[in-house]
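> forwarded from #structure-qc
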């Protein structure tokens, strides 16, 4: 299993412990879209007990540049198109120790005023993400 898949699995376990329903397969959004019609495909879609999407999680391997900005824009467009009742939180998790979280944060801050379909969370290291999910922070 790759590092990326290992991190996804660890995050899934943490969300599951908190009573959420994480999904890692067929994450085509908007809901009901096929692979060819999907606008956005996050690594993890996290739903609450009502089936509502409450988290979108991206596990990043690269620097926090274009990939973060692109994923945030696609998540925003998709959630607006789906007309979700409550904005899900968009979490970026970086697992490489040399990842530039400050660059990712800078990119997300530049988009914050334009994004209305999701709540942008500050980018996190793997360790910080697992801690926050486990403690129930960033609900």
């Amino acid at each position: 299993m790759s590092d990326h898949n290992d991190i996804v699995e660890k995050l899934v376990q943490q969300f599951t412990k908190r009573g959420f329903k994480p999904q890692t397969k067929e994450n085509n959004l908007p809901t009901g879209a096929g692979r060819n019609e999907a606008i956005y495909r996050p690594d993890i879609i996290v739903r609450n007990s009502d089936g509502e999407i409450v988290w979108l999680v991206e596990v990043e391997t690269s620097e926090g540049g274009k990939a973060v900005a692109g994923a945030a824009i696609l998540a925003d467009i998709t959630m607006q198109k789906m007309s979700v009742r409550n904005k899900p939180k968009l979490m970026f998790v970086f697992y490489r120790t040399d990842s530039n979280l400050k660059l990712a944060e800078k990119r997300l801050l530049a988009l914050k005023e334009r994004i209305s379909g999701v709540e942008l969370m500050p980018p996190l290291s793997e360790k910080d993400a697992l801690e926050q999910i486990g403690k129930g922070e960033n609900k």
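QC bot note: The first strand starts at residue 21 and ends at 23. The chain has one domain: 3-134.
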